[in-house]
Amino acid sequence: MAFLEDGRLEIDNNRSERAIKPVVIGRKAWLFSNTPNGAKASAIIYSIVETAIANGLNPYYYLRYLFEQLPNMDLTDNDNLDRILPWSTTIPVSCISFKKLTK
Q1: Helices 36-54 and 59-69: crossing angle, nearest 10°?
Q2: What whole-number distance in Å separates Cα of residue 53 and Cα of residue 58?
Q3: Average pLDDT of the residues in 53-72
Q4: pLDDT tens for each residue of 5-29
Q5: 47 near 59, Cβ under 8 Å?
Q6: 86-102 burial string, b = 16+ CB within 10 Å, else e?
Q7: Of 52, 42, 66, which Cα lies nearest the Cα of 97?
Q8: Could you state, in order of their start, the residue ranges of all structural domains in the chain?
């Protein structure tokens, strides 16, 4: 009923359900994370990939960009980290998804 009071809200939760579908599908595969550290690493990578997708980036090229940049960065400098976040305007065009470029 909240969508009746606030026009910004969607009438259904299809977008949310589509967003969590990969989590549901991957659930059985994640049973093989046999240590807490392995599970944490999987969760971090999954979060990076899904955030990249949500921001219109190609996850493969974005991860490749991160793996190239992170070893050479001062990770204590927040400005450096801000430049590599998926919503940053400084992300290379090569990381942007073809779908986003054609819109």
Answers
A1: 120
A2: 6
A3: 94
A4: 887 877 777 877 877 777 777 777 6
A5: no
A6: beeeebeeebbbeeeee
A7: 52
A8: 14-95
Residues facing residue 96 across a β-bridge:
57
pTM of the model: 0.68
Q: Which two tokens stand for residue 77?
A: 């400098």
Question: How many CA atoms within 13 Å lie on the side-chain side of 9?
Answer: 9
Cβ atoms of 55 and 95 within 8 Å: the answer is no
**Listed residue (3, 92, 15) closest to 54, CA to CA:** 15
Helix axes 14-26, 36-54, angle to 10 degrees: 150
What is 7-20 written as a DSSP string? TTS-SS-HHHHHHH
CA dihedral 85, 88, 74, 49 (to 10 degrees): 20
Token reading at 61: 């090229």
